[in-house]
Specification:
CATH topology of one domain: TIM Barrel
Shape: globular
Structural class: alpha/beta
Number of strands: 16
Strand order of the largest sheet: 1-8-7-3-4-5-6-2
Radius of gyration: 25 Å
CATH class of one domain: Alpha Beta
Oligomer: single chain
Number of helices: 24
Low-confidence stretches: none
Distance between the termini: 30 Å
Largest sheet: 8 strands, mixed
CATH superfamily of one domain: Phosphoenolpyruvate-binding domains
CATH architecture of one domain: Alpha-Beta Barrel
Strand content: 5-15%
Length: 569
């Protein structure tokens, strides 16, 4: 028996035989065409687009068992229909006389490299969508690799190098029990689909393709992020029991959807959801979340050659607000660094983007773009369930300037007789130590505050949260971080407003009692974890949480804090 460790991507247990799935590498020969072949290549391009879109339609009909899946696979169709994509391929054929296969290979290689090099892992992982589309097109054109799943049997556990979104859907359609990959992350579209299908998934398992052979007996533990090769009878028996318990636990969680997030001694916590993309709203509604505590709008501004206009943003914000009504939707204005928008905004390269022009600094440095977003949000908030949150606020001067700009946008809409939320609630994210230290003054200027713990930890401890070489210094339970959270909560309450946490700490069971004890009023979590966090809240007492936080604040070393929390867990 051997255990192989990876990272947890989608929870769940699976027991079955290993099936090694390797998508064949396509051979694309470099070929120039003659001027007389241009029209023939362009016709082949159109034919291939029609064929692959038809395949995607069938895939959506056959395997898309949730809106998440349909939307992601529909995204692949939109990639194929993108006018810029079609224009670029046409140019490569007409002007550079590349064969269709070579033109596609060159185009998608550049796009995939662009995404992979993004610092934000969520957007870096979106490269798999373009890989999926490229492979589907090229495999059709070259007649290579189209039947690589033909030998996959029902009940298998797939072992692969990586998996694309449509690959997950196809695996599910063939009745596999789980997926193990040598690479990948929790933020990919593949991960979203796996979680929506309740398909256990473990990624980044080192040497898994060299260690596991076809037909090997496996146990996949999606909770621990590991697989067990050739388990003994005692381990098999243990996991059979865990599978039964898991089924019972999921049924129990579903029963909590209509129950409040209230502690055992009656203290109410508002429990909301974070979303990255509009397609996640369905899961938010299914779990009966008390609102959206953080809608990240970055997806609107990235992966494109021009910025979204006011109307495009308005339509998206409006739809989400209507879907969630009457529950609140907190929309965060764009929170990316200039390095992500440099092609559009003509911003010079920065040596350290995390300490450079990002968050509210980007918005205040590009007022017309900022106003477009503000006006779109104001128009979408006419039913008064929309709030605006501003990222990376460092001083009261910034929030005062932002409030003035919002008033200007309201007046601009009035002048055009356009309905809007004239008294929209405004909040600031506490992500920088200066914001936490000055939170009393900040709270006087805001209707609510929300702590982004990911960045607060990063900036408090001077640790790049995406740098694996210093990840041991990224410590959520560091005493300095805890004191800043308590300080922010106290100052918010002195000014009669609520404090929320929308960072990763809010989704981690180890820290939820601590956050409640520190005075946090609202938690905004990953939609898939909402019911688990609700169950935890309902099982603990507010009094015990306060005592836990008070004791943790007395400890001077983060190791002592962690040891104390684990004893209480």
């Amino acid at each position: 028996m051997k255990r192989l460790k990876g990272i947890q991507v989608a929870n769940g247990y699976a027991v079955g035989k290993a099936a090694i799935v390797s998508r064949p590498r396509l051979q694309i020969s470099r070929k120039q065409i003659g001027p007389d072949e241009i029209e023939q290549e362009l016709q082949r391009f159109q034919d291939s687009l029609d064929k692959v879109k038809a395949e995607l339609n069938l895939l959506i009909d056959d395997y898309a068992h949730s809106r998440d899946n349909r939307d992601i696979l529909t995204t692949h169709k939109l990639i194929l229909e993108d006018p810029e994509f079609i224009a670029n391929i046409t140019t490569l054929i007409r002007k550079e006389l590349l064969s269709l296969e070579q033109a596609l290979h060159q185009h998608f290689t550049e796009v995939i490299d662009l995404f992979r090099n993004m610092e934000n892992s969520y957007y870096a992982e979106k490269s798999s969508d373009f890989e999926d589309v490229a492979y589907r097109l090229l495999s059709y054109l070259t007649n290579q690799g189209r039947d690589y799943l033909s030998g996959l049997s029902e009940g298998a556990i797939v072992i692969t190098e990586n998996v694309t979104p449509s690959g997950v859907a196809r695996f599910f359609g063939r009745g596999v029990k789980g997926i193990v990959a040598a690479s990948g992350s929790r933020n990919s579209h593949s991960a979203i689909i796996a979680r929506s299908m309740n398909l256990p998934f473990v990624a980044r398992v080192a040497n898994v393709l060299e260690t596991v052979s076809p037909g090997d007996e496996l146990i996949l533990d999606g909770y621990r992020g590991e697989i067990i090769l050739d388990p003994d009878e005692a381990t098999r028996s243990e996991y059979r029991k865990l599978l039964v318990r898991e089924t019972e636990y999921h049924e129990k969680l579903l029963s909590l959807r209509d129950k409040p997030a209230v502690t055992s001694d009656g203290h109410q916590i508002r429990l909301m959801s974070n979303i990255e993309l509009p397609l996640e709203v369905e899961q938010v509604l299914a779990n009966k979340s008390e609102g959206i505590g953080l809608f990240r709008t970055e997806f609107l501004f990235l992966e494109r050659e021009e910025l979204p206009d006011e109307n495009e943003q308005y339509e998206i914000y409006k739809k989400i607000a209507e879907q969630m009504y009457p529950e609140p939707v907190i929309i965060r204005t764009i929170d990316v660094g200039g390095d992500k928008l440099s092609r559009i905004l003509n911003i010079e390269h920065e040596l350290n983007p995390n300490l450079g022009c990002r968050g509210i600094r980007i918005s205040l440095g590009h007022i017309p773009i900022f106003k477009n977003q503000i006006r779109a949000i104001l128009r979408a908030g006419v039913r008064e369930n929309v709030k605006i949150m501003f990222p990376m606020i460092a001083s009261c001067a910034e929030i005062i300037q932002v409030k003035r700009i919002v008033r200007e946008c309201v007046q601009e809409l009035r002048d055009k007789s356009i309905n809007c939320a004239e008294n929209i609630k405004l909040g600031a994210m506490v992500e920088i130590p200066s914001a936490a230290i000055n939170s009393f003054a900040l709270a006087r200027e805001c209707d609510f505050l929300s702590i982004g713990t990911n960045d607060l930890i990063q900036y408090t401890l001077a640790v790049d949260r995406d740098n694996q070489s210093v990840e041991k210094y990224y410590i959520p339970h560091h005493p300095a971080v805890l004191k800043l959270i308590r300080m922010s909560a106290e100052n918010a309450h002195k000014n009669g407003i609520k404090l929320a946490v929308c960072g990763e700490m809010a989704s981690q069971s180890l820290y939820v009692p601590l956050l409640i004890g520190l005075g946090v009023d609202e938690l905004s979590v990953s939609p898939g974890l909402l019911l688990e966090i609700k169950e935890l809240i309902r099982s603990i007492s507010y009094t015990a949480c306060r005592e836990l936080a008070d004791k943790a604040l007395e400890l001077v070393c983060h190791d002592s804090v962690l040891e104390f929390l684990k004893k209480k867990d």
